[in-house]
Structures are given as C-alpha cells and as structure tokens.
Amino acid sequence: MDLKEAMEARHSVREYKDMPIEPEKAELIKAEIERINKEGDLNVQLFLDEPEAFDPEILIYGKIKNVKNYIAMIGKNADDLEERVGYYGEQLVLFAQTQGLNTCWVGTTYKKMHKLMDIRDDDRIVLVIAVGYGENEGVPHKSKALSSVIKGCRDISELPDWFIKGAEASLLAPTAVNQQRFSFCMTDDSKVKADPGRAFFCKIDMGIAKCHFEIGAGKENFEWA
Ligand SMILES: Cc1cc2nc3c(=O)[nH]c(=O)nc-3n(C[C@H](O)[C@H](O)[C@H](O)COP(=O)(O)O)c2cc1C
C-alpha cells in the first residue's frame, strides 16, 4: 500500500483488538518517529501495551475503546506547533495504515499519561493518536464539496490538475469533528496558499490537510506560499 492508497483506506477507528503491535512494526514506527522528530523539531513518543493511561471516560467526544498503544504528539511551544503536529502526525497515521494498522486522532490527554512522558522544558503535549489493530476499518466520512475548499483567485476550471488532486486528497484527511474548515488558493505566482479557517483544532487540521495535499498534488509540483 502506498501513501495515496493509505489516504483512501484510512478512517478513524475507535475500537481496538487485544492484539499487540509486532516488535518489527513497532521498530518501523519508532524509526519514522525519529525521522519526524528531527525534521519537524518535535518530541513525539510512542507508548506500547500501555492500557492504563488512556481513560475513555474522559473524552471531549467520541467513544474510543480498548486503546493500548498511542503516539503522544509533543513539541516545544511555538506559534506553528499545532500545524507541525498535524503535518507530521498525519505522516505517522498514514505510515501506520501502510503497515495494516488503524488509528484515531484524540484531542484529549490524561494525567496518567503525562507521568509516563519524557517532557522537556517548554514542551507542550498537544494531543495523542491511538494506534493498533482495529475491530473494524472505520467508515468514510461525509465530505464537503471540492469547491468549498478551493478559494479565491482563479476559477476551478483554470486550475492545474495537480492542484485539484491535492484538494481532493485534502478532503480525505481527518479533521476534528469532521469540520473541514481549511481551504487552498493558488496565488498569482502559482504557489499554494493554505487557510486554516476558524475553529477549535483548526491549525492541527490545517497541518493534516497540507500533508494530504502534498501527497495528492505531488510535492515536486508546487511550493507553499
Ligand atoms: C485534531 C483532531 C482531534 C480529534 N479528536 C477526536 C476525539 O477526541 N475523539 C474522537 O472520537 N475522534 C476524534 N477525532 C477524529 C475525527 O472525529 C475524525 O477524523 C473525523 O470525524 C473524520 O473522520 P475520519 O477520520 O474517519 O475520516 C479527531 C480528529 C482530529 C483531526
């Protein structure tokens, strides 16, 4: 499965089997985490077979059952931390999908978890991603129309194919409460400008949607404005 297929196959999964992640797969995920921590200047950490810390009773929304493994998205506090968490976290989500694993972004963290984490000065625990073998593969979310995430500048019929593919891929992205508030616009110098919109978690959603846009459009075809 490549990343485009992973974007299509991925849906939030909220119930997990009692099946551990095999050590070889865990090592691959750890290697990806090491890569994104370097590239994205983050302090992301993987917790395996650690069911105690995840308390499904205290969730902002959604019923998530039997989470034994999770990825804690942590980084030094900065204006762009949330967008980076979204962008790099989604790379991990899609990587997990290519390994036959399921995921769910979870906008809540727990005190019990915090005790297990290696937190540096100025670090902020942004949220977690549940990961494991799902009881199901989840279901495709309802999606906004393509035209509602393409804003400004040009008529859709004048946009290059790669831009449309990027926008279509962004609509497959997970967003908090499926809000899909982000939009993309092509500037006069043919760069892509992304707008998070306004909503709770919208900067994280923006990073996630940018990750999808790049995979759909092909990173080599454009630059971010
Ligand atoms: C930043 C963020 C936070 C989320 N928090 C939760 C959560 O706390 N509980 C939950 O059940 N789902 C959560 N989700 C999952 C979304 O509800 C889900 O991505 C959205 O409904 C779209 O569905 P899909 O992921 O299956 O495509 C979150 C997603 C994102 C991106």
Number of strands: 6
The biggest sheet amounts to: 4 strands, antiparallel
The Rg value, from CA coordinates, equals 17 Å
Ligand inventory reads: flavin mononucleotide
What is the CATH architecture descriptor of the largest domain?
Answer: 3-Layer(aba) Sandwich
How many DSSP H or I helices? 6
Oligomer: single chain
Can you walk through the features of this model?
Strands 1-2-4-3 form a 4-stranded antiparallel β-sheet. The protein has a two-stranded antiparallel sheet with strand order 5-6. Helix 1 (3-9) packs across helix 3. The relative contact order is 0.18. Helix content is 33%, strand content 15%. The protein has 2 domains: 3-132, NADH Oxidase (3-Layer(aba) Sandwich); 146-221, NADH Oxidase (3-Layer(aba) Sandwich), CATH 3.40.109.30. The protein has helices spanning 3-9, 23-40, 81-98, 111-116, 161-170, 202-217, and strands spanning 45-47, 70-76, 102-106, 123-132, 183-186, 192-195. It is built from 6 helices and 6 strands; from the N terminus they run ααββαβαβαββα. The model has no long low-confidence stretch (mean pLDDT 94). The longest helix has 18 residues, at 23-40. With 225 residues, it is α+β, with helices and mostly antiparallel strands.
